[in-house]
Design goal:
The complex is a heterodimer of chains A (58) and B (238).
Chain A: H1 3-8, H2 16-49
Chain B: H1 3-6, H2 11-37, H3 52-79, H4 82-114, H5 122-143, H6 147-162, H7 165-178, H8 191-237
Helix pairs in contact in B: 2-8, 3-4, 3-6, 3-8, 4-5, 4-6, 4-8, 5-6, 5-7
Classes of the chains: A mainly alpha (58), B mainly alpha (238).
Chain lengths: 58, 238
Amino acid sequence: MSAAQFVFALHLGGDAPYVWTAVGVTVLALAIEACALSIRGRDLARRIDHTDASGERR
Amino acid sequence: MNRALTLSISPFADRIRPPLAVAAAVLLALGLVLGMGFVPEDAAQRGSFRIAVIHYPAAWMSFVLYLAAAVVSIVTLARHERAAAIVANAIAPTGILFTLIALWTEALWRKPLRGLWWAWDAEAVSQLMLMFLFGGLVALRAMIDDSRRADRATALLALVGAANLPVLYFSIRWWDALQRAPQVPVPAMRGALALATLLVGSGFAAYAVFAVLGRARCAVTEREVLARSMHELREARS
């Protein structure tokens, strides 16, 4: 079964926009939170690498 | 000072985060493909009942996360554990995310069936209350500058909110007998629908642990950055 056939075989009828909006928003929300956490973690790691444990700038 | 210990809740937490992210992605992908592609259409609800595959796990997850925040808050208050306070604070934003997903998917499920985005039924109202409780934890934490006082205050609020959880849970049954709002019918959980819901639920659980540990790690690092900045400031003044 090709990808296009798979998509058309979903039998979602007239409710398809609601179902796919639910799927899309959920996946997007989780992905955005995961990316935001990753970016924040990297930023903080970069900031902490600029100072050593005694507070001296490297 | 041991940097590895300073910048994370525990080395084990750092090790399990990447496998958790992979597990969450795989379980969610499998659950969504199974739920959207292979669950047979319901005669009464057509395709929209497939939203249950996302809605129920998100609603359960928000309850479980609040319960986890309450349990960790007991540890914070009883043992003055700073790590526990950090984890409790890290749970709240992910809890808000899951309550929002539960509310949003319920609206998308209800609209094609009943023509309404919102109805004052027990499940929707209890999810909304839960979102306000999570929001209250985040707001209270942000309002208090002293981190130790903020930890204690948010732990207390989490416990007060936890007393509300059984009421929220049982209100769904009580309300069912009284309500007149257009309800979304509950589909029978069996076969592919049950398996897809279980897969998405497991994916959400793996994601929640991944996100909470990541946020806790950020919080620990943030406190360290602040401590070093203060140290620098004191050095510069003296």
